[in-house]
Amino acid sequence: MATHWKKLTNPNYLGAxxxxxxxxxxxxxxxxxxxxxxxxxGKKDNCVVCHxxxxxxxxxxxSTNMKMITKLYKTPYIEDWTGKKIQVGIEKxxxxxxxxxxxxxRKTIPQIQAKELPKCEICGxxxxxxxxxxxxxxxxxxxxxxxxxxxSACATKLAQKATEQNDSExxxxxxxx
Length: 177
Ligand SMILES: [Zn+2]
Hints:
The protein is built from three helices and five strands, in the order E-E-E-H-E-E-H-H. By secondary structure, it is α+β, with helices and mostly antiparallel strands. It starts with 24 loop residues before the first strand and ends in an 8-residue tail after the last helix. Residues 120, 122-123, 125, 150-151, 153-154 line the site of zinc ion. Zinc ion binds at residues 120, 122-123, 125, 150-151, 153-154.
């Protein structure tokens, strides 16, 4: 699949012009899809388009960039690319006898900084994510419910204590010391 260089300047999609001061972008893939792209000349074309978690325009993937993602993450299946991080920068390429700037996915997987997990206010351990909640969501949820941000073990203990007190006293206890 070839990318017409004109598409590289389609303002609806990520392009070399999206990159400020030559600074590479670190982006997280939300999903990749085959979509109809309307070029600046009004011509419709089917392209593979990559959407990102970050607030940037989607990027049309040419074969070079798709091969790069395949190589980086060792899978050619676009469904597997969801959630993966890529580093996007500018490279000068020759197209139709001209030198143009194009977006290239870099050869390295961007280093993701380890995020500090919120700490449990009872035991001091890191609050871990649950199956359907991030660690931050667990912290907010327990803060709202118990008045303290808690790890799931401490939250479970408090919940049990509350139930026991409930049973013996027949009233809703605060559960927070
Ligand atoms: Zn705890």
